[in-house]
Q: What sequence folds into this?
């Protein structure tokens, strides 16, 4: 049985660089934060970027949200005075991040209109987001982008670990933030939330396989006609779709990134994250081949309406 009058039973999409320009958003917001933190503790963006890189490596995520309170220079400056740290560098940095993120955190052209049309034309078609970002961070982003409510389910990795001061055993978080963390804030989302183990990260097949199993599509028979999977990364997303014998759409527009932005990202991103979070276009003839290439997110509408 198909969903509405679409030939598909399920649509799964990646988030970063597929529904919005993650690199532009994160580099802009993170640099703004680093500048303010540097000002608070009399350091520099370059020094703190290097420290952030280390923290991200330890926590296994470039989007570890409590990075400021784990930076050695920040800890050295404030010592055991956690309150001063939280009301100083941490809060000011977070405010700068959010302020800088606002103008750049926009879905790609036609994303909202397209999701709206899918919801209207194919109300029974489940739309699922699958990401390697921590679940909380993924939902925070979808909520800020104003598109969380279009999804039926969000699949992400485990929520970030709470930072603790080793000498005082104090949690280095404002009460308000800690509460959100403990309550596993879901932004009023009515759909399904699934937290995947860290080793389910793409391009391993287990995350997407879990989605397929949850929607009773674990048998590979006819799956290429029944499941549409969209991602910007040929190696990670398309390769994964090919392994699972589902129809893979490559969001080529998401792989179009200016070199200056990528060099700026490289200053605070662990090397493995550059490859993880960004697909660099190349002439790699061995790159996995998509079933269809999207030049715009709205190309999904043709895909969903065409009987193959
Ligand atoms: Mg992506």
A:
């Amino acid at each position: 049985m198909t969903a509405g009058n679409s030939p598909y039973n399920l649509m799964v999409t990646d988030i970063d660089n597929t529904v919005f320009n993650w690199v532009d958003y994160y580099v802009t917001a993170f640099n703004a934060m680093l500048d303010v933190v540097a000002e608070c503790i009399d350091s520099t963006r370059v020094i703190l970027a290097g420290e952030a890189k280390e923290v991200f490596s330890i926590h296994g995520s470039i989007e570890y949200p409590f990075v400021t309170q784990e930076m050695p220079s920040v800890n050295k400056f404030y010592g055991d005075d956690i309150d001063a740290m939280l009301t100083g560098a941490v809060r000011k940095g977070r405010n700068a991040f959010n302020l800088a993120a606002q103008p750049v955190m926009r879905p790609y052209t036609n994303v909202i209109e397209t999701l709206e049309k899918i919801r209207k034309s194919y109300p029974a078609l489940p739309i699922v987001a699958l990401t390697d970002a921590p679940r909380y961070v993924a939902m925070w982003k979808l909520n800020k982008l104003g598109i969380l409510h279009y999804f039926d389910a969000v699949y992400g990795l485990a929520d970030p670990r709470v930072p603790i001061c080793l000498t005082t055993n104090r949690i280095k978080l404002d009460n308000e933030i800690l509460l959100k963390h403990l309550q596993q804030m879901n932004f009023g989302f009515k759909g399904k939330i699934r937290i995947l183990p860290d080793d389910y990260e793409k391009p391993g097949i287990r995350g997407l396989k879990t989605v397929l199993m949850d929607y009773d599509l674990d048998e590979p028979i006819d799956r290429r006609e029944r499941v549409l999977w969209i991602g910007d990364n040929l190696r990670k997303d398309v390769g994964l779709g090919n392994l699972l014998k589902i129809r893979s759409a490559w969001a080529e527009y998401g792989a179009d990134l200016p070199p200056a932005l990528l060099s700026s990202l490289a200053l605070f991103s662990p090397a493995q994250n550059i490859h993880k979070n960004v697909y660099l276009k190349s002439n790699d003839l061995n790159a996995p081949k998509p079933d269809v290439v999207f030049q715009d997110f709205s190309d999904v509408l043709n895909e969903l309406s065409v009987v193959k």
Observations:
- The CA atoms of residues 85 and 192 lie 36 Å apart.
